[in-house]
Amino acid sequence: MYPTVNDPSEWLRHRRSHWVKSLCVLILGLFLTLAGPCSATALSDTQQLVVDSWRLVNQGYLDPEHLDSVRWRRQRQKALEKSIVSSEDAYSAIDGMLSALDDPYTRLLRPDDYSALKDSTSGNLSGVGLQLGPSEQSDRVVVISALDGSPASDAELMTGTSILAVDGTSVTDLGLEGTAAALRGDVGTQVVLSIEAADGSADEVTLERRSVDLRPVRTRRLRSDDHTLGYLRITQFTDGVPEQVQQALEELQDKNIEGLVLDLRNNSGGLVSSGLAVADDFLASGTIVETRNRDGIDDAINANPSTLYDGPMLTLVNGGTASASEILAGALQDNERSTLLGHQTFGKGLIQTLTNLSDGSGLAVTVAGYVTPSGHDIQGEGIAPDRQLSDPEPLAPGGDGDRWISEAEQWMEALLEQSPDPAAE
Prior knowledge:
The chain is of the alpha+beta class. Among the domains are: 127-213, Pdz3 Domain (Roll); 217-352 and 368-418, 2-enoyl-CoA Hydratase, Chain A, domain 1, CATH 3.90.226. The protein has twelve helices and 19 strands. The chain has helices spanning 17-20, 45-60, 64-69, 72-80, 87-99, 111-121, 151-154, 171-183, 241-254, 272-282, 324-334, 403-418, and strands at residues 107-109, 124-127, 130-134, 141-146, 162-166, 169-170, 190-196, 202-208, 210-213, 217-223, 228-234, 259-263, 287-293, 298-302, 313-317, 339-342, 350-356, 362-371, 387-388. Strands 3, 4, 5, 6, 7 and 8 form a six-stranded antiparallel β-sheet that branches. Helix 9 (241-254) runs parallel beside helix 10. The longest helix has 16 residues, at 45-60. The N and C termini lie far apart (53 Å).
């Protein structure tokens, strides 16, 4: 349910491993138990969860000065002063400790939430299909996108819609992860959302939970009287996406496409490794992204010299294009590989590690930020398209009557008409 470039992943294990190792964005391994503070008595397992969480933040958090400003050592002491007998006691203490950071992306995921997040990045999902993010207003959670074919998509819940309550419980009380957890449930059950649209209108929506076929890669041919184009839509960067994209590009090129429309609308991210791999498919050398860690070090990740597709392309983006998909869009734009069409992207430019804790819960910690090859900081700003497309934005990207696809076809055909004909040389 929760998007992030920052979702858990295993980094590429093949030809891209030399540059992936330089950006360990998401770690899914068991960490050695970290020593707690000196004490006359041994820590219990539940207390150790608190100490481990504190230490992971202390060692990796992006902004050490911010840790100092919130008296991070004192936060550990305050947490351990509480009665911590059960796992829920430990989770409550960790939540309280992390709240001092005022960073919604540095967070504890309870075992069920952590398991659900791992399932979503492997392509399995049941629920209502909403990708959620923090809002500038602390009393609400915002919709980044609704997954294609999900109950939320059928109900036309748009990017920017604020979630105010779930089944009558305010998201102020639930928090981001709690809101995501409340939306999950058994297939066939219903959930009531209190929402506020971007125009300020309030409403209640009842959704029935069901299994969602993510189908993160979708493709087809776009034909006109004079040209045959390829259409490639990526809705989320799950583990199998790089291989699926490779197969899709090979099939499209076998059909002699003259240009490609890449659709990243409502792609809220997923595994950064998958986004980097897809960028590498389109770029011949050049920088994909640069990262900045707590030491201020810039670390550039570069594409390999070879590409899977080097023909003309356009890329569709909107406010639901976030995180790993913004890395891809920014790389294509800054390397002048593709013109971006559509609306401003979401603006998620922070990187988290995600670590297994000893009881099956997980801890996400903001450890770095990323910028596009030209140095543009995406966080809070997003990426402006090269060309704005007409309003209102289509409600069902990639569906029948999608006006933006028609506009992209016209734009591509104009580019092809301007390009010299190799056969005439």
